[in-house]
Amino acid sequence: MQNIQISELKNGIKVISEHIPYVQSFSLGFWFNVGSRDENEANNGISHFIEHMLFKGTKKRSAKRIADDIESHGGYLNAFTSKEHTCYYGRGLYTHLEKTFGVLADMIQNSVFKSSEIAKEASVIIDEMNDINDSPEELIFDKFETNIFNGNSLSKPIIGNEKNIRKLGKKDFQKYIEQHYHAGNMLIVASGKIDHNKLLKLSQKYFDEYITGKPADRKKVECKPVEDLFVYKDIQQAHLIIGALTDGYTRTERNKASVLTHILGEGSSSRLFQIVREKHGIAYQINTFLNSFSDISTFGIYFSTNDKSVEKAQQLINNEFNKIKKKHVSERELKRAKEYITGSIIMSMENTTNRMLRVAHSIIYYGRIKTLDETLKEINSVTKEDIIKLSNKILDDKVLNRVVISSKNHLLHSAA
Fold first, then answer.
1. What mean pLDDT comes out for the span 120-140?
2. Which pTM value belongs to this model?
3. I need a surface site. Which of 103, 149, 242, 389 has the fewest CB within 10 A?
């Protein structure tokens, strides 16, 4: 904790640094608490579109100069949009922190949104959308969340839809930025060889007069049972997700779901990988996932196989569900799952960007710095009884939702 410092500007922006003395670089992120969850039907996709547009030129920098100013010093700029937040970040040698900070600050506050650039970027995003639609292994996750969150804002895909992308313009972007890009919704986070006082002075220089505002107030997700979904595509393989809802970041049950996820399908020694792929050889891809938001998570199993093997694969998966629900969880595999999670977390901390992401997530979701020891302690406190109880709750046919992308409707032949 002593290597993490937190300050606050007069307008409420938190400035957080994690000093790592043994590296020569930094990762710097400007975070905004806004994403597709905050959109509506008419502007779905605008958060992601704005993220793209901020790289397309400011009052004093062209798109090329934005890239040149960073890359000419050996640095790197990028951004991402999720359903709950947007992050603009840069990496570089510690001697170039001020340059990176200045470029990112310029992008956020002075982007010009030229009509010609908006039109070009709309085409780029539609190409990105088409790439997703052409990739069933990507598309199915969007379809799963659209289905299971039906009627809630989390159902909206981050990339939006073509109709919206083609109609959104400069006035839409400026209005959305006024609503969501303000001090009450912003964090400045850096990890690496960082001097906190220098980071704070840069923050004061560029953001002391940044527009104030209230933090985002999101409605709690209210989910109702939904029907399984079949999506027709003329493809060779069948792609399936079998999943359910569970608790989000702010609830301790998420740790139990994480351990269950690893027991079932994380890594080559997991149950489903060994049974479905290694023993029966009927799926190249099979893995579990836990996609978490502040108040809710999606848990599930994704796999692809040929049409003739779909029912067998589902039956094998259901058999493993039933074994866990009937208390067939060994201490050995529980320990393996915990060690796998622990190793993944600790090894990820060797990267400054991952550390910056972890610090930001901690502030966003917990309102404080949650220590690594605290996280690992929570994971290691999960018991067999916890796993069995959770399994009986979320591996139940009454709550499981299935999505299939295939040339044949396998929902008509459910093995469940």
1. 97
2. 0.94
3. 389
